[in-house]
Design a protein that fits this description.
By secondary structure, the protein is α+β, with helices and mostly antiparallel strands. The protein is built from 3 helices and 3 strands.
Length: about 140
């Protein structure tokens, strides 16, 4: 308000207007968008690692159940056959083809890669266990 008149002040436009505002906002948002995309990609890699571990454990148990003698060897070969090469290195296989006469189990532990397979691994292990009834002979 103008002093003493009761009339509102007129808003003065800046000499340059709002030119350049969009460039400044875009520059500020790019890092946030990139970090969000990287975090989403990392979540996809962790989920894919869970899927790989589960599938490899299932395949190992299937082969071990059907094996006549060397359950461990057949199970381990099936696990490594199922895993992509980037996940084979850090794979830890426990109890592959183990179990009693009734149940055969396999436990596979993988490490999820950081950003892309074969680069580095997260310190959080991804473990999957599978089991199947042993076939009677």
């Amino acid at each position: 308000m103008k002093r003493g008149t009761g009339e509102p002040d007129r808003i003065r436009a800046r000499p340059g207007g709002d030119r350049g505002q969009l460039s400044i906002e875009f520059t500020g948002m790019v890092p946030i968008i990139l970090v969000t995309l990287v975090l989403l990609w990392q979540a996809v890699l962790v989920g894919y690692t869970f899927t790989l571990a589960s599938g490899a454990a299932d395949e190992g148990v299937r082969k071990a159940v059907a094996a006549d003698g060397d359950r461990w060897g057949r199970c381990e070969a099936a696990v490594y056959e199922r895993l992509p090469s980037a996940w084979e290195g850090p794979a830890e296989i426990r109890d592959c083809g183990a179990g009693g006469d009734d149940v055969v189990t396999a436990t596979i532990t993988l490490k999820a890669p950081v950003l892309f397979p074969g680069f580095a691994s997260l310190p959080i292990p991804v473990t999957a266990t599978a089991g199947a009834a042993a076939e009677g002979k």
